[in-house]
Amino acid sequence: MSLSVNEASAVLRQATRETIRRRSMLFMIQGGLLVLAGIVALLSPIFASTFFIVFLGWMLVIAGIAQAIGLIGATQVHYFWLQLISAVLAVIVGFMLISRPEAGLLAAALLMVAYFMVDGLQRVVFALMIRPMRNWGWMLLSGITGILVAFVLVWNLPGAAGWLIGLLLGIELIAVGGAMTFLAWDLRRATALG
C-alpha cells in the first residue's frame, strides 16, 4: 500500500502537530525565554563591545541548548536535522563569541549572519510543514524575519556592527519566541477545548 503525496503530507503534518502538542509547555517556556532574551538585547546595545559580545554569546548558547532540549525524542519529524543544525550552530557561535571577544564586532556580525540565515531557513521550512495549523503564519514570519535580519546585517557592515547587532538580535529573539509561544499556546488551547 502506498500513500499519495497529499496523504503522506497529511500524515507528516499530523505527526508534527502531535509532537508540538505533547511538548507545548516546553515550547512555551523556550518561547518565553527567547522573548525575555530579546527584550534584554534591545535594552543593552550600548554596553562595552567586549561585554556585549560575551553577553550575546551566552544568549546563543542558552537558546541553542533550549532548542536542542526541545528536540529530545523528536527524531521522527522531518525538520529534526535542520533544527538540530540550527541548535548546534547557536551553541558553537555562542562559545566562539565567549572565548574570543577581542576578535571584534565585525567577526561577530558575520557569525550572526550565518546563524540568522540557517535558523530563519529552518523556521520557514517548519512553518510550511505545519501550514494548515492556526498561527502557522507566525512561525513563517519569524523565519522570514531571521533571513531579513541576516541581509540587513550584511548591507550595514562594518560601520553599524556595534549597535545594530544588539538591536537586530533583540528583534530576532522576540520574533522567534513569540512565534513559538503563540503556536504552543494555540495547540494547548485547542486540545483543552476538545
From TrEMBL:
InterPro entries: Acid_resist_chaperone_HdeD, DUF308_memb. The chain crosses the membrane at residues 26-46, 52-72, 79-98, 104-126, 138-157, 163-185. Pfam families: DUF308. One of its GO terms (cellular component) is plasma membrane. Keywords: Membrane, Transmembrane, Transmembrane helix. It comes from the Bacteria. The keyword Membrane applies. This is HdeD family acid-resistance protein. The lineage of its organism: Bacteria, Pseudomonadati, Pseudomonadota, Alphaproteobacteria, Rhodobacterales.
